[in-house]
Structures are given as C-alpha cells and as structure tokens.
Amino acid sequence: SQEGTEGQGLPEGTRKMMRHISTWNGAVTDKYHWSQSLAEVTLEVEVEECRAKEIQVVCTATRLSIKCKGKTVLEGKLHEKVSTEDTMWHLDGGTQVVLSLEKQRQTWWKCVLEGDQEIDTTKVESTKTMDEYDGETQGAIRKIMFDQNQKVQGKPSSDQLRTAEIMKEAWNAPNSPFRGSEFDPTMLNLSGPVSEDFFEDVDKRRIEEARKAKAAAAGSASDGGGGGPAA
C-alpha cells in the first residue's frame, strides 16, 4: 500500500499544501482555504479528527455554520447569497470539511464570510469555459466563431448562408422573375449584413401564405362537400 507515502522527501510546508484544496481565485485564511469560479465557491475547513456523523453543517442563503463534536468551528454571514439546495459537503481524511456552495449570482466574491480577509477581485483569473455559459450565450459564441472561421476562409457568414437558403426557396416562387431557371447565388448580393427584420418579414410571409392556403383548402372542401338528397 502507498498510504502515507505521498509527498515523502518533500519539505513539510510543501507536504501540508498538497493536503489542501486549490486556492484558485480565493485565498488561505487562518480559518479555512477557499477557491471560486463565477458559479460556485469551494471551502475547506480544518477540524479535529472525527467521523462525518460528528460534523454538523448548517447553510442558509445568507449564513454558514460548521460544528465538530458540538463545537463551533466556523460561523458567519456569507459574502453573497447561495442556493441552499445545491450546497454539498464531505469529510476528507477525517480532518477536513470540504464544502461546495452554489452562488445565486454569478460574481466574484471578495471573501467567503463577511469580516474575513478580502482578496482583490480585479486580479482573479476570469476565463470561463464554454459549459459555464447558458445555452443562448453558447449559441451566440459558436455563431461568432463560425463566422470568424468562414471569414478567414473567404466563405459566407451564417447570416449570409441563411439568406441564400431563403432566396433559393423564393427563386421559383410565383411571380419570381427567376422562376423556371436554375438557382444562381452569384446574382444575389450576399456580401452585406442582414438585419433580423429581414428574417422576421420572411417568417411572417410564410405564416400568412400557410394561413391563406389552409383557408383556401377548407373553402374548397366545403364547396364540394354536402350530404345526399333528402329522403
């Protein structure tokens, strides 16, 4: 077994640091170690050797309390509100309580508990991974990345491709001057930006045409229908 051998040969201070969580975008205080992302805070509190059932963690939206064997280890008002249903904790190695607090508001915390040592939030590493954004924002980012890649390759942007698709559909529409001829995208000016109003107008026309077609079909059915002669 390798238990107890991790960090052998290293300075005592280094071995101690290896036993703690990362303090990325957080700090080390005399009470705990902590780190954070925009969405959550991770907190590690040192306790005397115990079992998990001897730990009591009470977390409300605004306050946090940790007790070990009935003794208060940490207590205070949280810097910002948290979502209590997403609060999780575990006992690590019998001497460290590690908590994960989900922030109600995505913002950088200066400290975990009010009155504790604060960090300079202007110096935090604020890079976010794609999955930290909501679905709408992820879609917008992917669109920008796609358009940038298309531009580098000299190809049309996503809006221009969308416009071309609509134009192709309208190419053979009734009263179109191009009706009956092969679709030729070079005859369309797709180099400029396309406003959302354009797409909204197209969608409205499609809905209106579908409504008229449905009404016409219903009228035709009623004209040709009817029961047999009366007895």
Automatic annotation (TrEMBL):
Its main location: cytoplasm. Residues 222-231 have a biased composition (Gly residues). PROSITE patterns: CS. Residues 27-113 form the CS domain. GO terms for biological process: protein folding. GO terms for molecular function: unfolded protein binding. GO terms for cellular component: cytoplasm. Residues 210-231 are annotated as: Disordered. It is found in: Cytoplasm. The keyword Cytoplasm applies. This is CS domain-containing protein.
